[in-house]
Amino acid sequence: MYHRLMFSAGVAALRPVACAAVLAALGACATLTESTQQQVLVQTVLDHREVAGAGCVLSNDVGKWFVATPGRVTIRKSLKPLHVDCQLGAQAVSGESVPSKQNAALWGNVLTLGAGQIVDRNTGAGFDYPATITVILRPLGPGEQRLPAPGGVTVY
Fold first, then answer.
1. Contact partners, residue 32, CB within 8 Å, separation at least 6
2. What integer pLDDT is reported at residue 117 of this predicted model?
3. CA–CA separation, 84 and 133 (whole Å)
4. pLDDT, tens digit, 9 for 90 and up, residues 80-92
5. pLDDT tens across 103-126, in order?
6. How far apart are CA 63 and CA 123, in angstroms?
7. What is the tens place of the pLDDT at every residue in 27-76?
8. Over the range 50-69, which residues count as b (16 or more CB within 10 Å of their CB) and which as e?
9. Is 61:80 a contact under the CB 8 Å cutoff?
10. What is the dihedral of CA 47, 49, 55, 56, to 10 degrees?
11. What pLDDT shows up at residue 155?
């Protein structure tokens, strides 16, 4: 009887460890379950109306992407904000910063005692930007310069 009680106590003590190991394997880290890329829709608004044909540059610490609005573009995710600069001909410009947010897959890292979180923060897999980014354009003022094109050349 004493051995049976000792065995049951030993098994009971191992259950939390076994459950944590199974959950860690299932939860893994976002790097294993999520992509490091994300598709976003960029749209532009001027004078409270959606406008088409604005050229936008999206950039973060891991890359730079171009899109004409309204349009979808695949970007690489990051912990850092996504900067969105748009221009509609000689009419309007805008510059916005969009923060990234932790996605649900990142919470699996709690089960792995944070080991996967370091990887997810570096790859961006544990973070998402909004699926739709709406940029509010503002008209260019008199004498105001247009945005420089990539490479520092101003386009007229």
1. 116
2. 52
3. 9
4. 999 999 999 888 8
5. 765 555 555 555 555 555 555 567
6. 12
7. 444 444 568 899 999 999 999 999 999 999 999 999 999 999 999 999 99
8. ebeebbbbbbbeeeebebeb
9. yes
10. 90
11. 39
Give the total residue count for the chain. Answer: 156
Of 87, 45, 50, nearest in space to 66 by CA? 87
SS3 of the chain: CHHHHHHHHHHHHHHHHHHHHHHHHHHCCHHHHCCCEEEEEEEEEECCEEECCCEEEEEECCEEEEEECCEEEEEECCCCCEEEEEEECCCEEEEEEECCEECHHHHHHHHCCCHHHHHHHHHCCCEECCCEEEEECEECCCCCCCCECCCCCECC
Q: Any idea what the Cα angle at residue 114 is, between residues 113 and 116, rounded to 5°? A: 120
83 and 96 in contact (C-beta within 8 Å)?
yes
